Amino acid sequence: MFTGIVEELGEITAVETLDDACRFRLRGPVVTEGAQHGDSIAVNGVCLTVVEHEGDEFTADVMAETLKRSSLGVLAVGSRVNLERPTAVGSRLGGHIVQGHVDGTGEILGREPSENWEIVRISLPAGLSRYVVEKGSITVDGISLTVVDAGPDFFTVSLIPTTLALTTLGIKQPGDPVNLEVDVIAKYVERMLGDRATGEGASR
């Protein structure tokens, strides 16, 4: 489990294309400290497994399903990525509960800069809008953010200077894709209410 608090802005240093997958090599001095084979690291909000680790770099395999459902397929050598290690039991939950399982991809629609923050408008895929509410939580490229406005096919977030400086949202432009993960609690509530309405839960 992750919290959506990005630890560092890493970089793709190599991409190996396989038959039905690809292998990334990524540089991230903070997240690789103490890393071992099999550890999990979130890359732009996608939970990946460390295959190899040497120095401040690690490699991770990305299967075709993940490439299809996320924006990782557009990454190339030199691409900057948000990196986060799983949260430790007993540590502070600085953002919200993030699984690293992408629900869909959105697109940066526009940016409205101001003196002390910036409003970013992002498209919302069909089927996800029911989970996104004003002042609720959403994960964008692995960043835990608060929804400012929520529409039927878009939402906006307000970014402080720290987020702009230390994450990919500081450099992404209109037209760029982003990974989205909605609040898992909303999905559980929907399922439980649906079971109650149909009576399915009573037989379990």
Question: Characteristics of this structure?
Answer:
single chain; 3 helices; repeat; 6-stranded antiparallel barrel; 40% strand; globular; transferase; mainly beta; riboflavin synthase activity; 204 residues
Describe this structure in words.
- There is one protein chain.
- This protein has 204 residues and is mainly beta.
- The protein is 13% helix and 40% strand.
- The protein has three helices and twelve strands.
- The chain has a six-stranded antiparallel beta barrel. A six-stranded antiparallel barrel has the order 7-8-11-10-9-12.
- Strand 1 and strand 2 (21-27) form a beta hairpin.
- The chain starts with 7 loop residues before the first strand and ends in a 6-residue tail after the last helix.
- The mean pLDDT is 90.
What is the strand arrangement across the widest sheet?
1-2-5-4-3-6
Percentage of residues assigned to helices: 10-25%
User: Treating each run of at least 4 consecutive H or I residues as one helix, how many helices?
Assistant: 3
Identify the overall geometry.
Answer: globular
Span between termini? 27 Å
Topology as a string of helices (H) and strands (E): EEEEEHEEEEEEHEH
Query: Strand share of the residues?
Result: 35-45%
The poorly predicted ranges are none
Rg result: 17 Å
Average pLDDT over all residues: 90
Structural class: mainly beta
- The count of DSSP E runs of length 2 or more, i.e. the number of strands, is 12
Largest sheet: 6 strands, antiparallel, barrel
Enzyme class: transferase
Domain Lumazine-binding: 1-96, 97-193
GO molecular function: riboflavin synthase activity
Organism: Streptomyces atrovirens
